[in-house]
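Quick entry, no commentary yet.
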Amino acid sequence: MKPSLCRGLGLGVLTLALAACAPTTPENSPQSTSSDAPTTATSAQFPVTVENCGREVTIAQQPTRVVGIEGAAETLLALGAADQTAGYFGAAPENLPDYLATNARETKHLGSSFPFPTAEQVLSDTPDLVVLYGFGDSGDLAKQLDAQQVPYLQLSETCDEADHTVEGYFNDVRTISTALGQAEAGNKLVE
């Protein structure tokens, strides 16, 4: 099995375990849908700069056309950000746990993440932010995103100095939610 597949599966298991252990109060229930999500940030809170994989990423305005790939897409869905998501690559809604599938049905399933989507596939929905679990084998996607000036965030376990800890994933959730203008939703998910 490819190492990236093993890491992706590990992240999915971690996401499921965290959701299963989370308290089920109405404000942080894993059953929440994007319509239950906290109010989005105002444009006055942007631009926002976040630290990701040793680099600063500036998001000029609140993203409304996010594309997610693999475990990072599941993080978007867990945050209830379907209304800000143009689409995602990963498991089809019917293959996701119910609390993620509900949000997945509110956005576009762009296809599987195996094989890894091409840069053309990722850019076809004109994203204003891409969140992903690494770059696959070619490295072409990062070059194309940079050339098109599309900001991107990757999960910390795929950074050059990888962080495979639970706290690393919590930091990813906080980073992604801040970039979305949904910091409160990120804090609730981590709690």
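second:
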Amino acid sequence: MKITTLSLAAVFFFPLGLLSAADTAKPLKVFILAGQSNMQGQGIVTSKDKAGKERPGTLAYLLKDPAKAPMLKKWVDAKGEWTEKRDDVWVWDINEFGTRHGVLEFGYGWDLGSRSWFGPEMQFGHVMGEHLTNQVLIIKTAWGGKDLCTDFRPPSSGGAVGPYYTQMMSSIKLVLGDVKTQFPAYGGGGYEIAGFVWWNDFCSPNKGVPEYEKNLTNLINDVRRELKVPKLPVVIGEFTGPWGADCKDAAALTIRNAQKAVAERPEFAGTVSFVVTHDFVRTEKESPTGETYHEFKNGETYFLVGDAFGKAMKKLVK
């Protein structure tokens, strides 16, 4: 198992040239997005078939649909050109392919740097950027095919601490330990760890499913304890997969029910939210690929998931 070793020299810098409207005297609001390949970002911006036609379900395809194009109105200009960047919202992203950071824009999907990909961070970042007058930083730590039972196993669950739990925490501390170097536009007003989003886990069907509720509860408590934010707002994204509301897969339903149960625990009242995502799944026919485990890489799905995460977090952030 290979884990990326981080250093400040490994991350590249973005050029200054955009002026932020955010209040730089206020604390930087930091949001952590964690999970596996779905959280990495499998949404497709544009993809054409052999005949040169845009494939269904990409963002470029949605722009041609009068019924769905309005959802992207803040990401394009009057000419239909992409203007999705926000210089008041930044992203620091790590996955098994490396690290990348800079202003919020396309390119933080699983294929880091390619503007053909995006994940939940895009619309989540837009929602939080519009909601807050602070500068916003999203730290995204997501590796493909990693589970909560072993890979992200929290300390309180006993046994060996998951190496990706450890990597997640070390990444957060690395970034926050030197924000000004990595993000020169940072105004120096300090920072506040403002929220944590967890999405998707279905890689441990035997041991992992029965103890999912316990492990997720421990993950929330351990992250809060280690980051010293006892009431850290947490959004749990429902395990989505290729199923809509008619899912009949027993293990998937068990995980969905466990995620909902964690959010409903009395000790988490008002600080943890469960977000239903299954209604955002589109069919393979409506999508650019047949990858069931990545929601067919449907751009609309990933936009809606990020939007739902952002709206849920708005309700929790004071």
